[in-house]
Amino acid sequence: MFDCYALNVYGENAYCCPYTDFHLISITGDVPRDLGPALYRSAHGLLLQGAEGALIGGYGPEFDLVTPLRLSQQGVESTGWQCRIVLPDGMEAQHLRYTCRGPDLHAFIRGTWYHLALDELTADTRADHGW
After folding, report:
1. Structure letter (DSSP) for residue 2
2. Percent of the chain at pLDDT exceeding 70
3. 109: Cβ–Cβ under 8 A, 6 or more apart, which residues?
4. What domain range includes position 42?
5. pLDDT by residue (tens digit) across 73-98?
6. What is the DSSP letter of 59?
7. Which of 37, 45, 64, 116 could link 85 by a cystine bridge, Cβ 3.0 to 4.6 Å?
């Protein structure tokens, strides 16, 4: 593992997408498990609840991209369309700092704290989603 791009620690489990392979790795106790290639390289956030999840963010103009996913026996699978995160006023969510814990996305910008749950993001992945 060279670097960790997306990390989620929740309860006794940790999940990450390490650079440069961008596979989704689960770690329980001291046992790592490769779940397969992530659907999107360079995501900076990862939400998970059971087998459902989403990769958050990316490079350049994809800073607000949400990629919904599901963990299955076959690996990491797509569960819908990619969408974008926007602020409540409809503005771009650029320069947000993300922290992911289980199914909860916490984002911070200029002293404001936003919270968004995975089920809110995946309820409608056909359109942009805002706080």
Report:
1. -
2. 92
3. 95, 96, 97
4. 3-130
5. 999 999 988 999 988 888 888 888 99
6. S
7. 64
pLDDT per position as a tens digit, 29-52: 999 999 999 998 889 999 999 999
Quote the tokens at residue 115.
Answer: 């919270």
Give the Cα separation of 24 and 34 in Å (integer).
6
Cα-flanking dihedrals φ and ψ of residue 91, to 5°?
-80, 160
Residues sharing a CB contact under 8 Å with residue 42, sequence separation 6 or more, in sequence order? 5, 22, 57, 58, 59, 62
**What is the C-alpha to C-alpha distance for residues 60 and 79, in angstroms, rounded to an integer?**
24
Instruction: Extract the tokens encoding 30.
Output: 């001291």
Backbone angles phi, psi at 60, to 5 degrees: 50, -125
Measure the CA–CA gap between 101 and 103, rounded to whole angstroms: 6
Across the range 55-60, mean pLDDT stands at 91
- Whether 127 shows a pLDDT value over 70: the answer reads no
CB 106 within 8 A of CB 113: yes
* Cβ atoms within 10 Å, residue 83: 20
Domains in the chain, number = 1
